[in-house]
Description:
It is a single chain. This protein has helices at residues 15-23, 26-31, 47-54, 68-77, 96-108, 137-148, 177-183, 195-205, 229-247, 250-272, and strands at residues 5-11, 35-41, 59-63, 84-89, 92-93, 112-120, 131-132, 163-164, 167-168, 172-176, 209-220. It is of the alpha/beta class. It is globular.
Amino acid sequence: MLSPVSVIVLSYNTCDLTLTCLAQFAADAAAAGWQVIVVDNGSQDETTAAVAQVYPQVEIVRSEQNRGFAAGNNLGLVRSQGNAVILMNSDVLAPFSTLAALPLYLEQHPAVGALSPRLLTQDGAPQAFAFGGDPTLRYLLKRGQRRLLGRPPLHDWAVASPIDVDWVSGACMCVRRAAVEQIGTLDEQFFLYFEDNDWCLRMRKGGWKVMYVPACAVVHLGGRSEPRRRAASRHYRDSLRRFYHKHYSPAANMLIAGALWGYSILLRLRLLVPRSQ
């Protein structure tokens, strides 16, 4: 197995969840010689003190302000020492045996730079948008059209075998140290959303594969530290525009701006139309 392994748990005002997350694996991780880092991303609760009291073996990195998903994880990445690094949101529940299978998969598949286990909802259903394709105009139009028409999603979230994908969710992601050293850490220009897309795209451009490995499954409670819906929508649009500015042509940037405007209008109209009983 790639050794040592570092686990970074990112927390923002989720003290109880962070303690529950650590309870799943921290003791076994310490026994295995793993490095566990909790990044407190500007929380206003007692996360730092509680983690220090219950898990003195865990390293704590505290930011005085919420710097966003990418910058928060980077605080942990620069402290990490493992040849494999597992990034986890504090609302992920994963036993040590599952986490241990992730760096083992990297060892067995040297072309893989990043992977995600299967993400399950609290009810045990496969989580939507656990992986996907690059957000090209064609891809987004197809996805938006299916949503507006009430059709099934583009992807089968219940896929049973490992698949090669464009990106995996940063909610629980295992990355290879060599890949990070080659392409760099997460882009801190993304406050929330699309930082994992960007990272995976950069890995693929660097020659690494990105995999979704459903044989390993974790529970992602989801949304516990995210902003409210309106703020989340704003972050999503801003990050999508930033992604386009970074990776796509000026023409594509103009088209995505128009598409976002048009889609928001269509979605509002759809929501205003009463649904038949």
